[in-house]
Design goal:
Elements lengths: L1 E5 L9 H6 L4 E4 L12 H11 L12 E5 L5 H5 L4 H17 L4 E5 L10 E5 L5 E5 L1 H11 L11 H12 L3 H13 L10 H9 L6 H21 L3 E5 L17 H10 L5 E6 H4 L7 H7 L4 E6 L2 E3 L8 E3 L9 H17 L8 E4 L19 H19 L15 H6 L3
Parallel strand pairs: 1-2, 1-12, 2-3, 3-4, 4-7, 7-8, 8-9, 9-12
Antiparallel strand pairs: 5-6, 6-11, 10-11
Helix pairs in contact: 4-9, 5-6, 5-7, 12-13, 13-14
Bound molecules: D-mannose (DNO).
Length: about 425
């Protein structure tokens, strides 16, 4: 597994030098300043590659840009309206420039309007760390009483409406603003140029788009893009919906194993793959992450390792971003499945046997509280996550663990150590 780290570019307050000290082996980045639908030029790509390859003092970092996250898909492509055909062409031109630059793995998502969504960006846990949280009641309050989406009441059960109503009544204006900021504008990849009126307008444009229609639009997009990606030797990988259920009446089509199976079968190519994000998918109790890693394994081109703790076992529920080994997903089992997949690929002679992974998000701990970073992307919280994940990878990859005597009940660890097997 290749241990990577997300970097938002020269403006990121966590530097290339910082990530070197965290033991990072490769960088995940994107040209966030270019709008969806715009071609990524060779010059812009080169500029970012150079920034990644350089430490603060100008000396080489030894790091490469390994994964693009994301090459964004425009709203026009998702809806098949306006300039969607021109955006297909632009996407393919970007892919050519990316391939020329030697970058192979490209993450994207097909979530309408909003990328990932949380209601609280600095929720305090018992240890004093802060993390991100999605509270279903707060979200429903935003939807029904702040955004005032038409027909929103029809999307929530009676008890949620009642709770949301009480929650909204307890909020003052500044709390309402903070909630709206957190949901719509607060996160990397968020629709940061929108007002609430814009959001309403964009939502209305999806009125006529059913989940089946959106799924077909994704298949049309992939049918056009994937043959080009395959020829260029690229690996496209679709990020799941986060959270993995319908929000604001919008269709969501990448939330479950069945969704992934459908899309990868519909356009069957090694270039049409998956970003397995354990944090996003792990919000649903019916997503079996180690099983998904095993069954979808050959198509997993990128791993986001993150954990969430659910408040309930409902499909539509509240959750917070737990420590990497602390939530509801069995991270050891996921990593074991990923290592098995890597072995399989090696045996099959695949050259992409080392799957890039990144510690996805991190809680704010220690000096993170003082130092600003993108929500979810603090230096120390992520470093801790990476260190824990690296420990699991090192342990599960160690020859001692595959030694037959280890499974012998009479042999204690100290006896094994004495015999230095
Ligand atoms: C959040 C991220 C998402 C992700 C995009 C990929 O931290 O996982 O914003 O980058 O959805 O397209």
């Amino acid at each position: 597994m290749q241990q990577t780290w997300r970097w938002f570019g020269p403006k990121d307050l966590v530097s290339i030098d910082d990530m070197l000290q965290a033991g990072v082996e490769g960088v995940v980045s994107a040209l966030h300043h270019l709008a969806p639908g715009v071609v990524w030029s060779a010059e812009e790509i080169k500029k970012r590659q150079l920034a990644i390859a350089t430490r603060v003092d100008g000396s080489p970092s030894g790091l490469n840009w390994e994964v693009i996250e994301s090459l964004p898909v425009s709203e026009d492509i998702k809806k098949q309206t306006g300039d969607w055909r021109a955006h297909y062409a632009a996407y393919k031109s970007s892919l050519e420039n990316i391939a020329d630059a030697g970058i192979k793995t490209i993450c994207y998502n097909f979530m309408p309007i909003l990328d990932w969504t949380r209601t609280d960006l600095t929720w305090r846990v018992a240890s004093g760390a802060t993390c991100m949280r999605f509270d279903y009641t707060a979200f429903a309050a935003f939807d029904m009483f702040i955004l005032k989406r038409k027909g929103a009441e029809g999307d929530y059960p009676a008890d949620t409406i009642e709770l949301a109503n009480a929650y909204f009544k307890s909020m003052n204006e500044s709390k309402c603003d903070t909630l709206a900021q957190s949901i719509v504008f607060g996160l990397p990849g968020a629709a940061d140029n929108y007002t609430l009126a814009d959001v309403r307008q964009h939502l209305a444009e999806y009125d006529a788009i059913s989940p089946d229609k959106l799924r077909q639009n994704l298949i049309d997009f992939l049918s056009d893009i994937i043959p080009v990606a395959e020829k260029l030797g690229l690996r496209m990988c679709c990020h799941p919906d986060d959270p993995p259920f319908n929000l604001l009446g919008l269709p969501r089509i990448m939330s479950t194993e069945a969704d992934y199976k459908f899309i990868t079968d519909a356009v069957d190519s090694c270039a049409n793959g998956i970003t397995l994000c354990t944090g996003s998918l792990g919000v649903r109790p019916d997503n079996d992450l180690p099983g998904m890693m095993t069954r979808l394994g050959s198509k997993v081109h990128f791993l986001h390792l993150r954990n969430v703790k659910r408040d309930t076992n409902n499909i539509h529920g509240s959750f917070y971003e737990a420590e990497h080994l602390g939530g509801d997903t069995d991270m050891v089992a996921v990593i074991a499945a990923a290592l098995r997949e890597e072995k399989k690929r090696k045996l099959a002679g695949r050259n992409d046997y080392s799957i890039p992974m990144r510690p996805d998000h991190g809680q704010n701990i220690l000096d993170d509280h003082k130092r600003k970073a993108q929500p979810g992307y603090p230096a120390i919280g992520r470093l801790k996550g990476l260190a824990e994940l690296r420990g699991i990878i090192a342990t599960l990859s160690h020859p001692e663990l595959s030694h037959p005597e280890l499974s012998h009940p009479e042999l204690s660890h100290s006896k094994l150590a004495d015999r230095s097997i």
